[in-house]
Write a structure and sequence with these properties.
Structural class: mainly beta
Largest sheet: 8 strands, antiparallel
Order of helices and strands: EEEEHEEEE
């Protein structure tokens, strides 16, 4: 994956992204069958979800903790900027889940690994009215 920064609400996280999957949903406001048997659709737009993003090994424990704390904030949504196709894509969404596992227990800290999370968009990245 690209070595680009992850940005959440303007906070920059210098952390490697190991794996990223995305899913686009085309949302409809109205979908009905017409009298002639066709389908009428009134479109809202396209939502971009990130069903899974896995982060690489993070040696900087403070940076790891800062990212983890940001991901678990109990807020309705975040402005998320991700490196996709060697450029940045920004969308508004919420964190749907976060998981990691203990790697090493140190004298004064615990090191975690295998950090994964998922994002669900709350606002279309493409609006039907623009087409």
């Amino acid at each position: 994956m690209a070595k680009l920064d992850l940005v959440i609400d303007g906070d920059i996280f210098k952390i490697d992204i190991f794996k990223l999957s995305r899913s686009a949903k085309i949302k409809t406001k109205v979908q009905e069958e017409t009298e002639d048997g066709g389908i009428y659709r009134e479109m809202i737009g396209t939502m971009l979800d990130i069903p899974s993003i896995s982060f690489g090994i993070v040696k900087d424990l403070d940076e790891y903790t800062r990212l983890f704390d940001k991901l678990i904030e109990p807020v309705p949504s975040h402005v998320i900027t991700l490196p996709i196709n060697d450029k940045y894509n920004t969308f508004i969404g919420y964190v749907d889940g976060v998981a990691d596992e203990v790697d090493t227990v140190l004298t004064d800290k615990t090191r975690f690994k295998s950090l994964v999370c998922s994002f669900v968009s709350t606002v279309p990245i493409l609006k039907a009215e623009d087409f």
